[in-house]
């Protein structure tokens, strides 16, 4: 299985075998989701296998959650709206 080029590059930069194969398998299970969701999972995973597996599972349950967690910052004042601080619709740089 091949992912978008930026996702492949991030996978190879952050993981070595056998973790790389495990991460690829986890992402393949959510491959029908957008590259944005996959990027959010990797961002939230922070290069840690257990975190990537956790967030891949969360994405299977509701991808909107991982998008929110990866792209938005909680407001500091009560009643304020969350603020977008990242946009993973675009490839990783």
Describe, in short, the structure shown.
By secondary structure, the protein is mainly alpha-helical. Helix content is 57%, strand content 4%.
> Quick one: biggest sheet?
2 strands, antiparallel
Q: How many whole angstroms does the radius of gyration measure?
A: 13 Å
Number of DSSP helices? 5
- The N- to C-terminal Cα distance equals 22 Å
What is the SS-derived class? mainly alpha
Helical content band: 55-70%
- List the helices and strands in order: HHHHHEE
Q: Compute the average pLDDT.
A: 94
**Strand ordering within the main sheet:** 1-2
The residue ranges in which pLDDT falls below 50 over 5 or more consecutive positions are: none
Kindly give the count of domains: 1
The best one-word shape is elongated
Strand segment tally: 2
Features:
93 residues, mainly alpha, two-stranded antiparallel sheet, 5 helices, 57% helix, 4% strand, elongated
How would you sum up this structure, described in words?
By secondary structure, the protein is mainly alpha-helical. It has one domain. The protein is 57% helix and 4% strand. The chain has a two-stranded antiparallel ribbon. α2 runs parallel beside α4 (49-61), α3 packs antiparallel against α4 (49-61) and α3 (35-45) crosses α5 (63-71). The longest helix has 13 residues, at 49-61. It is elongated, with a radius of gyration of 13 Å. The model has no long low-confidence stretch (mean pLDDT 94).
């Amino acid at each position: 299985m091949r992912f978008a080029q930026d996702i492949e590059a991030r996978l190879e930069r952050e993981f070595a075998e056998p973790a790389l194969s495990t991460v690829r398998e986890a992402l393949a299970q959510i491959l029908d989701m957008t590259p944005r969701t996959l990027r959010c999972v990797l961002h939230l995973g922070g290069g840690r296998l257990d975190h990537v597996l956790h967030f891949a599972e969360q994405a299977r349950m509701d991808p909107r959650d991982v998008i929110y967690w990866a792209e938005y910052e909680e407001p500091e004042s009560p009643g304020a709206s969350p603020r977008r601080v990242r946009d993973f619709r675009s490839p990783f740089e």
